[in-house]
Design goal:
Layout: E1 4-12, E2 18-27, E3 32-36, H1 43-51, E4 58-63, E5 66-67, E6 78-81, H2 93-103, H3 108-121, H4 137-149, E7 155-159, H5 167-184, E8 187-192, H6 195-201, E9 204-209, E10 212-217, H7 219-224, H8 229-234, E11 241-248, E12 251-254, E13 257-260, E14 274-279, E15 284-287, E16 295-304, E17 308-315, E18 324-331, E19 341-346, E20 352-354
Parallel strand pairs: 3-8, 3-9, 6-7, 7-8
Antiparallel strand pairs: 1-2, 1-4, 4-5, 9-10, 11-12, 11-14, 12-13, 14-20, 15-19, 16-17, 16-19, 17-18
The protein binds adenosine-5'-diphosphate and magnesium ion.
Length: about 350
């Protein structure tokens, strides 16, 4: 087990694509850490650079107390699980799991024992003689995990390990992965583009965009206090409402309505500043009777989310300006009529101001 430290890490691919742009990051020993971001933001490149499968063009990678920046992958004491599992199709499950040990020149009997032991831990006993083509997606994923575990690496690197599983299996595998990581106590870095997966699994999350880290924090921190509008828009099962607004004394004017100025913002904004007012659909209350100091608009869409509904309202724009949309989550049974007027009040302490 080991901590991972990245210093000013950069990667420019031949041809000039800058995939990583001066990343600084510390991942603690034993931490379950998620790299989250949209496709193409550099997640796989970062994981491969930690593994040594890509060479950093700038900066340094430290694992434990060793600077591994210039070490071969095999000497870094990490194991990587690839998105497509990358199992050897012509080898049995036992041979696949034992493969890293063969590379380490362990004798055949020791490899067999270790493969059987690891297979048992992952519920794969009974499948040892099968080939990958004879396994379900979930079983293949466990074989890939078993192969990574077999040589007891200090660090696990997982690239979208759940993305090839169907929705239900994915939830099961998620719980399984979390339990496994707790039991092994191993440092784990996993890549995902799925914010719900990152929030559910990780101790901490780095949200990436364009080769940079936009925020690092616990799931609660990045959900409650996104550092910028990019993170605000990316985290959450429904995107945060981000509305143009203007500071006016101790209030903020949103779509013509004065709302209380969000608390931490008081020191950093001045009267007349143009800002963005952010509030999650879950943190708004919808009323069907007129109310002072509420955002009011017409109900244009009601979407069923299961035990709640997502209501979209059109807020009026000022002087001939097009209206803006606002989304509110309402509990089951509280859905308003389409075309009716709704009055929306943000919950105290749940809204944020941004400058970008
Ligand atoms: P992610 O995993 O977040 O989707 P990647 O790390 O795969 O992102 O890619 C980051 C950027 O680097 C993208 O612009 C991608 O096109 C580019 N890229 C990835 N691999 C290579 C490569 N081998 N050669 C050149 N460019 C690459
Ligand atoms: Mg990727």
């Amino acid at each position: 087990m080991a901590a991972i430290t990245l210093r000013r890490l950069g990667k420019v691919y031949p041809g000039g694509v800058r995939a990583l742009d001066g990343l600084d990051l510390s991942i603690a020993d034993g931490e379950f850490f998620a790299l989250l971001g949209p496709s193409g933001c550099g997640k796989t490149t970062l994981l491969r650079t930690i593994a040594g499968l890509e060479v950093a063009t700038e900066g340094a990678v430290q694992i434990g107390d060793r600077d591994v920046t210039n070490l071969q992958p095999g000497r870094r004491d990490v194991a990587m699980v690839f998105q497509d599992y990358a199992l050897f199709p012509h080898m049995t499950v036992e041979e696949n799991i034992g493969y890293p040990l063969r590379i380490k020149k362990l004798p055949r009997s020791a490899r067999r024992d270790k493969a059987a032991e690891t297979a048992a831990e992952l519920g794969l006993t009974g499948l040892l003689d099968r080939r990958p083509g004879q396994l379900s997606g979930g079983q293949q994923q466990r074989v890939a995990l078993a192969r990574a575990m077999a040589c007891h690496p200090q660090v696990f690197l997982l690239d979208e390990p759940l993305s090839n599983l169907d929705a239900r299996l994915r939830l099961e595998a998620r719980t399984f992965l979390k339990r496994l990581q707790r039991e092994l106590g191993v440092t784990c870095v996993f890549v995902t583009h799925d914010q719900a997966e990152a929030l559910a699994l990780a101790d901490r999350i780095a949200v990436m965009e364009g080769g940079r880290i936009r925020q690092v924090g616990t799931p609660v921190e990045v959900f409650r206090r996104p550092a910028n509008t990019f993170v605000a828009g990316f985290i959450g099962s429904t995107p945060m409402n981000l509305l143009d607004a203007e500071v006016a004394g101790d209030a903020v004017v949103v779509a013509g309505t004065r709302l209380p100025l969000p608390e931490p913002a008081r020191a950093v904004v001045a009267d007349g500043d143009r800002v963005v007012y952010g509030v999650r659909p879950e943190y708004l209350d919808l009323h069907t009777a007129p109310l002072d100091d509420a955002l009011s608009g017409r109900v244009v869409v009601v979407e069923n989310l299961g035990s709640s509904s997502l209501v979209s309202l059109d807020l009026p724009g000022g002087d001939g300006v097009a209206g803006v949309g606002l989304q509110v989550v309402v509990p089951e049974g509280r859905e308003p009529e389409l075309g009716s007027t709704g009055w929306v009040v943000p919950r105290a302490g749940r809204s944020l101001l941004y400058r970008d």
